Amino acid sequence: MLDEVSRIAREAGRIAVARSTEAYRRWDKAPGHPVCEIDLEVDAFLRDALGRLDPEAGWLSEETLDQSDRIERPRLWVVDPIDGTRDYLRGRPGWAVSVALVEDRVPVIGVLDAPARGEHWSAEKGKGAFRNGSRLKASSLATLAGARVPADSLPEIDSDLVTVPKPNSIALRIALVAAGEADLVATLKWGFEWDIAAAALIASEAGATVSGALGQPLAFNTASGAAFGVLVSAPGIHDQAVERLRERALALV
Q1: What is the pLDDT of residues 25-69, one digit of tens each?
Q2: What is the CA radius of gyration of the chain?
Q3: CA-based nearest residue to 232, from 192, 194, 180
Q4: Hey, what domains does the chain have and what are their CATH numbers?
Q5: Angstrom distances, CA of residue 134 to CA of 4, 33, 122, 179, 210
Q6: Please, which residues have CB within 8 angstroms of residue 150's CB and are 6 or more apart in sequence?
Q7: pTM (global) more than 0.85
Q8: Cα–Cα distances in Å, from 123 out to 2, 199, 204?
């Protein structure tokens, strides 16, 4: 199954790359939330291909009207056809096709295809995580100070942390923690399962600790399809990160 999902995600990435230099329509779904016709084209391709791979699985995608019956199904495809659309629209490489298969509320397969970066990330529950065939391992950092965070800038209160280059795709930022190239990714806002499902599995299979913003376990195939925040880190700093962010997170719940 993982090989087939990887093949389908790679083909979706090729479609997006091939269309990236053409003229295409773009608009805002809501203020600050851009989308383009290629998001929809890739979404349609994935829905057809993944639907044929597992016709019994439900469907949850950023670019498809949600289906209420998905929560009654034991398996669910969770898809973001182009995670990081802003980078895609600007001709930057920080975007990825994100595909996860969730079973009994838990991701069991996760794939990110980032063709503009020459990267293909994959994981299967209990079998490790890989980038371009190389096994991934999260960092062993044990002290929060000095932790590498993919960010453009950090607030003064976090000046003891270190910024590293930030792809627009939240999934790719999480994957950097899996690769040991970042130590911490945290969001303190409500987000959607399609942004994190595949990357959360990749990170956890690489030994990173994955939770919600308050340290709570993440759940998938929920009725809302959303969760409050995500915190992914090297295991040795996760508790420290939760404690540092707790007051800020509680103010935003």
Answers
A1: 988 888 888 899 999 999 999 999 999 999 999 999 988 888 778
A2: 17
A3: 180
A4: 2-135 (3.30.540.10), 148-250 (3.40.190.80)
A5: 18, 34, 10, 10, 21
A6: 163, 164, 165, 166, 167, 173, 176, 182, 185
A7: yes
A8: 8, 9, 9
